[in-house]
Amino acid sequence: MIKHYYYILKLLRPRQWIKNFALFTALVFGGQLFEIGPLIQVFLGFISFCLLVSSTYIINDILDLKKDRLHPFKKARPIASDKVSVREATIIFIAILALALFIARGVGDGFFLISLLYLALQMLYSFVFKSIEIFDIFFIAAGYILRVYAGEMITGYHLSVWLLLTTISLSMFLAIGKRRSELTLLANYAGVRAAEIRQSLSHYSEPLLAAFIIIFATSTFIFYSFFTFLENPQGPRLSIDFFPDVLPYYLQRKWLMVTIIPVVYGLMRYLQDIYEKQEGESPDRVLLSDRSLLASVIIWGLLVIVIIYFIP
Fold this sequence. Notes:
By secondary structure, the protein is an all-alpha fold. It has helices spanning 2-12, 25-29, 36-63, 65-68, 86-107, 109-127, 135-155, 161-187, 194-197, 206-230, 249-252, 260-275, 283-289, 291-309. The protein folds into two domains: 1-159, UbiA prenyltransferase (Tetracycline Repressor, domain 2), CATH 1.10.357; 160-312, no CATH class. It is built from 14 helices and no strands. Helix 3 packs antiparallel against helix 5 (86-107) and helix 7 packs antiparallel against helix 8 (161-187). Mean pLDDT is 86; it is low at 238-243.
């Protein structure tokens, strides 16, 4: 019985929930991180999105049952391996989707609409666009972008256009890296044709995806650099002052540029994971398994918080 509950938890893919921390972006850059009210609201939104995301993965696994059984790794998923029946998975899907939307409705109208839009896009992806080249990448990237917009809807803080462009570029970078890793992975297994697993892969080549990756890795760096140089997020300064008031204003407002260092390192490290380690099919797995990459993300987050909330 306990082992069965383990497979049900595995069906929900809790590792994927790490992506939902994107909801906290507007909270942090809007200077509301230490305000209890907004923090609780975003946390509830986080829980809602975790349930919502899990529900879309369940329906996706049900639809891809036959293809997953042909995949070298996905065949071990709970539904594909018959650890969880399709009937039971359907019941769980309906239950957690209803709970996710119930929580989302309580968080706010804007967040509820974003949740419905996310659900609609994921359904369109699962039923239609997963098999259509280019569109499949756009739909994967849209999932990341909507998480950031969901955080905006909760807090009411409008993020800088440069940070939004950064989010779009990074989302495309991760989505293309996912497709490139899938293509490479399946090519290394004899008797497995990529088109049988995912039809859109037959329309991609490694050089083409490499060109796409270069475009969006570069644009992510450029847009984020513009954001740190041109924008100056104003959070409520806490009582600790690390620098004297005599520090020139033009220098104070450029401190966010320090965060470019871990961003560039993170991009380079992720590219290394894609090309050298042949990983990237699951960004969350890469992040949690690569300590250097994880450290760069944590350092970036800490630097952003210190600069926004502690440096006058």
